[in-house]
């Protein structure tokens, strides 16, 4: 019964949510409802106040939208293709990257899969390529460079009045987080649309889970566990002709100044889910971490962090990138009446009885497009074409800063508070950016605490 | 019925006449309201051509957008506000009173454009009425940080737009809304350069030379002795933290004849300044752990001398921490031991052998502006004005040392000009925590705020008594600093604060 109420409330307040709401209630939300004796639920928040994306198969038509891509690596090229898949009249017209070969690879993919050709004079290389892409007559920017550059690129895009898709993470330090937040406000002031690559926000199973939890089905949230444990990620074998800077940027997922370390670079997804569902900020983090098997760079390959959130709620976060270990990429949230986990996408009561489960078969039957990496672009394009604002940058910056806070605690051994982190002068962006030799002795693996260091043989 | 009808006819007439009169009145009053809100009307009474001229030079008069902002748009609340009419009337009455009853020459316009006064006549809601978007096109990253800070803290800290944008309505060449760049030229930079510090072999006054600069300053030998520290309970305007009175003995020391000047402070800045990319905690740890390393201030925001001039004027607005690092630097380059005075040393030097409220003759009640007698007959300024830069003689700013005479020890301006840092932590009950006879007291072992002594150019005489105590207010004084974290070097929200140094005599010096 309560579900009906929440639906009508949402209907009343938000017409844009109707299609999504109807579709999603159909998509399994009613599995456990209306059985007659169900206890009355107390909603955590009114969904009318929360953003629920309208996850339709395809973006609406409109005049051509021209996008420029900054950062033509794997994810950037992928995002460009996701964008082209999202709907009609969508174009990629300009490319920017530090390296010509990455641009060439990206063009090849666009040509082969979408028959899109980006002419030479619309391709730009170098650290200032982003300025040229922004100035190339585009409507929106897809920004997917290593994340340390994201705040600067986002600021330039918004200054030029462009919509933006920001691949996650969107910042790796406190100074960057503040620039994102101020720039997000500039974007909102102009009515620009900004979507970030935390694609779980555009994944139907997560959006439905969010709605279930907000309806009060697991009661009040009392704790959480978030995981990103996976095998080793990639690294680049250094070529003799590469300078230090070129090597690091090409090998960026292994260098903390570029990626923010993997707790920020990947695990931010899981931390972001908890912040999104819980709706509050962390206040304090105490974490461990180490580098055990990583082959390149100055990062850790494992973190374990205890986050304390507002209201005394604890979240255990763990992430690892080592082969041959137990893997798990998911979130678990415990409530007073039950729990939710994203591994099975189901909700169980305190006795383990399944109360709700996302029906992915039904999703496949009801929708043609189920890829959240495409759906996030569908939503972005729909907002741009409907002239309704969306801005995820501030929310994602908070999640990124949450990850940064855990990282700093693991690196130093000290407890790190949100207050300290949000006021910190921590900045990973070098003052001078140029391809060339770099004093590599400054890139050392963090060692927490005091005392004698154990030297590895 | 008929009678009533007649009456009604009559009342209709009254009603329409009334309505007509009201309409005329409304029309007239609306006209009056509009007329009295024009720039011309404002300027017809406000006989201060400077405000008119500076407005015309400001960004609110001449700018990219072509919009011109008029007097009442800043100096009254927005028209829609329910305070509008009341505040307009109040301002009008105040202006009329000033126009008809006050001597035009008595207005200190220079002073009135300072922030302290400006916040009373500029309405923040009026700023925000026009400036609806604080994250405007072209806003820099620093500006973004500052405006995020404003949004987060405006209500809690009562932040005003003009805390940072004081010159937008009236141009002020001495105001700068940006970080100071470069190093100010010290006044005597073209003179002889000292290659070595002063050599001091006897206990007497000496002139210290700052090596590799043309800057020198005088140090006065203070012999030390025993005195009654604090004020007796009957002293007018005494506060409880000034007691109980103790017999305090201080050892001999040298003390700066005057407060540390801008010439001296900029010399320190020039040789130690840092860029602020390093976490302040790291800087503080570095300064604390290594005896030789001195990492000095980051560039201040705006012009810290407030446009009053530097040179021999006392350096101001630096933090207590800045002052201690200055002493560390000065010690290092002179090979002596410079430090901030203890509170006891300061009061000993200020009293210069006297036990009266001031070292010169004077009753606080007669000298203060506060009492009824002073209100009627005016405060007695004859004596105090010769020795102290304070509210009634300062013209609202710091003054150079030549403005006043020295006390019997040969020290100038301990009481006035600028507040002075001491090395002690402040505690209200600090005096009660020791015995009644005490040697070289250094204050509480721990604390959060430091003792400041003396008063500044804006103080009333009652707060300039030799025994009067004050303390730093770190949070308030950094209220509008939007940096994250806030500066450890410069205060954003206090002007009249500085310090003077003391120097410990070398053990080889014989003190007779």
Q: What does this entry look like structurally?
A:
The complex is a heterodimer of chains A (457) and B (512). Chain A is α/β, with parallel strands linked by helices. Chain A is built from 16 helices and 15 strands. Chain A has helices at 2-13, 18-29, 74-85, 100-114, 129-134, 150-159, 174-190, 204-214, 244-250, 256-259, 262-265, 268-278, 360-366, 372-386, 393-412, 418-422; strands spanning 65-70, 90-97, 123-125, 140-143, 163-166, 194-196, 221-230, 282-290, 302-309, 314-321, 328-335, 338-341, 346-349, 354-357, 416-417. In chain A, the strands form two sheets. Chain A has a nine-stranded mixed β-sheet. In chain A, strands 3-2-1-4-5-6 form a six-stranded parallel β-sheet, sandwiched between helices. In chain A, α3 packs across α14, α6 (150-159) packs parallel to α7 and α7 runs antiparallel to α15 (393-412). The termini of chain A are far apart. The model of chain A is unreliable at 1-36 (pLDDT under 50). Chain B is an alpha+beta fold. Chain B has helices at residues 2-35, 39-45, 49-57, 71-75, 84-101, 109-112, 115-121, 124-130, 141-157, 262-272, 280-289, 320-334, 343-351, 364-367, 372-377, 384-387, 474-477; strands spanning 206-209, 216-222, 225-229, 246-250, 253-256, 337-339, 419-425, 437-439, 450-453, 469-471, 497-498, 502-504. In chain B, the strands form three sheets. Chain B has a five-stranded antiparallel β-sheet with strand order 1-2-5-12-6. Chain B has a four-stranded mixed β-sheet with strand order 10-9-7-11. Chain B has a three-stranded mixed β-sheet with strand order 3-4-8, with helices on one face. In chain B, β1 (206-209) and β2 (216-222) form a beta hairpin. Chain B starts with a helix and ends in an 8-residue tail after the last strand. The mean pLDDT of chain B is 89.
């Amino acid at each position: 019964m309560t579900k009906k109420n929440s639906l009508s409330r949402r209907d009343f307040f938000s017409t844009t949510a109707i299609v999504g709401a109807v579709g999603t209630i159909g998509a399994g939300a009613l599995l456990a409802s209306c059985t007659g004796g169900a206890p009355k639920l107390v909603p955590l928040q009114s969904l009318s106040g929360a953003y629920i994306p309208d996850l339709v198969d395809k973006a609406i038509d409109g005049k051509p939208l021209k996008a420029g891509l900054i950062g033509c690596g794997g994810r950037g090229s992928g995002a460009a293709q996701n964008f082209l898949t999202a709907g009609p009249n969508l174009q990629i017209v300009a490319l920017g990257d530090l390296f010509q070969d990455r641009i060439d690879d990206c063009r090849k993919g666009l040509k082969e899969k979408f028959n899109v050709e980006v002419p030479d004079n619309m391709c730009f290389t170098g650290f200032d390529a982003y300025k040229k892409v922004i100035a190339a007559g585009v409507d929106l920017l897809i920004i997917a460079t290593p994340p340390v550059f994201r705040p600067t690129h986002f600021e330039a895009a918004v200054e030029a009045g462009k919509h933006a898709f920001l691949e996650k993470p969107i910042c790796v330090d406190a100074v960057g987080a503040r620039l994102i937040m101020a720039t997000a406000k500039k974007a909102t002031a102009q009515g620009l649309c900004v979507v970030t690559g935390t694609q779980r926000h555009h994944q139907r199973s997560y959006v439905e889970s969010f709605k279930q939890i907000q309806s009060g089905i697991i009661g009040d949230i009392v704790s959480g566990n978030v995981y990103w444990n996976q095998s080793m990620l990639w690294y680049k074998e250094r070529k003799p002709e590469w300078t230090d800077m070129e090597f690091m940027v090409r090998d960026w997922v292994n260098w903390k100044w570029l990626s923010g370390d993997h707790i920020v670079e990947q695990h931010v997804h899981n931390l972001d889910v908890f912040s999104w569902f819980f709706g509050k900020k962390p206040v304090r983090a105490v974490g461990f971490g180490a580098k055990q098997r990583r082959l390149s760079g100055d990062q850790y390959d494992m973190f374990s962090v205890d986050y304390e959130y507002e209201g005394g709620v604890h979240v255990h976060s763990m992430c690892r990138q080592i082969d041959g270990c137990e893997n798990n990429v998911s979130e678990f949230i415990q409530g007073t009446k039950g729990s939710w986990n994203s591994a099975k996408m189901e909700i169980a009561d305190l006795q383990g009885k399944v109360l709700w489960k996302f029906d992915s078969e039904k999703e496949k039957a009801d929708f043609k497009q189920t890829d959240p990496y495409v759906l996030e672009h569908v939503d972005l394009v729909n907002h741009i074409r409907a002239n309704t604002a969306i801005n995820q940058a501030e929310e994602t910056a908070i999640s990124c800063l949450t990850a940064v806070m855990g990282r700093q605690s693991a690196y130093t051994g000290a407890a790190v508070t949100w207050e300290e982190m949000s006021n910190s002068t921590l900045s990973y962006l070098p003052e001078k950016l140029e391809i060339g030799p770099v004093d590599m002795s400054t890139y050392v693996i963090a060692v927490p605490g005091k005392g004698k260091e154990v030297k590895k043989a | 019925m008929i009678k009533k009808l007649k009456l009604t006819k009559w009342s209709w007439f009254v009603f329409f006449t009334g309505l007509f009169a009201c309409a005329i009145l409304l029309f007239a009053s609306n006209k009056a309201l509009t007329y009295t809100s024009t720039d011309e009307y404002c300027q017809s009474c406000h006989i201060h051509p400077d405000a008119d001229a500076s407005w015309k030079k400001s960004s609110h008069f001449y700018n990219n957008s072509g919009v011109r902002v008029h007097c009442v748009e800043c100096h009254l609340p927005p028209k829609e506000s329910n305070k509008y009419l009341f505040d307009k009337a109040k301002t009008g009455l105040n202006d009329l009173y000033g126009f008809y009853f006050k001597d035009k020459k008595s207005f200190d316009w220079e002073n009135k454009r300072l922030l302290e006064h400006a916040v009373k006549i500029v309405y923040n809601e009026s700023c925000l009425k026009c400036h609806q978007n604080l994250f405007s096109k072209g806003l820099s990253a620093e500006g973004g940080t500052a405006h995020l800070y404003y949004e987060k803290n405006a209500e809690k800290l009562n932040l005003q737009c003009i805390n940072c944008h004081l010159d937008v309505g009236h141009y002020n060449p001495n105001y700068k809304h940006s970080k100071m760049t470069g190093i100010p030229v010290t006044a005597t930079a073209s003179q002889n350069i000292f290659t070595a510090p002063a050599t001091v072999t006897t206990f007497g006054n000496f002139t210290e030379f700052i090596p590799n600069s043309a800057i020198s300053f005088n140090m006065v030998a203070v012999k030390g002795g025993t005195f009654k520290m604090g004020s007796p309970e009957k002293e007018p305007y005494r506060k409880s933290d000034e007691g109980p009175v103790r017999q305090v003995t201080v050892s001999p020391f040298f003390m700066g004849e005057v407060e540390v000047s801008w010439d001296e402070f900029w010399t320190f800045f020039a040789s130690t300044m840092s860029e602020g990319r390093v976490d302040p905690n790291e800087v503080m740890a570095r300064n604390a752990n290594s005896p030789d390393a001195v990492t000095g201030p980051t560039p201040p925001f705006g012009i810290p001398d407030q446009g009053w001039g530097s040179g021999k004027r006392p350096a101001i607005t630096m933090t207590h921490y800045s002052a201690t690092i200055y002493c560390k630097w000065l010690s290092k380059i002179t090979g002596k031991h410079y430090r901030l005075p203890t509170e006891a040393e300061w009061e000993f030097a200020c009293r210069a052998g006297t036990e009266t409220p001031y070292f010169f003759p004077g009753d606080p009640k007669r000298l203060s502006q506060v009492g009824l007698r002073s209100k009627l007959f005016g405060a007695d300024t004859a004596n105090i004005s010769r020795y102290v830069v304070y509210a009634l003689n300062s013209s609202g700013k710091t003054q150079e040392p030549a403005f006043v005479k020295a006390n019997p020890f040969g020290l100038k301006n301990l009481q006035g000009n600028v507040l002075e840092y001491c090395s002690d932590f402040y505690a209200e009950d600090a005096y009660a925590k020791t015995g009644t006879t005490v040697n070289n007291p250094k204050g509480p072992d721990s604390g959060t705020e430091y003792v400041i002594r003396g008063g500044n150019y804006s103080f009333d005489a009652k707060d300039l008594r030799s025994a009067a105590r004050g303390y730093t207010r770190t949070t308030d004084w950094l209220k509008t600093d939007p940096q994250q974290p806030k500066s450890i070097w410069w205060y954003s929200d206090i002007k009249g604060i500085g310090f003077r140094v003391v120097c410990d005599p070398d053990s080889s010096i014989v003190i007779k």
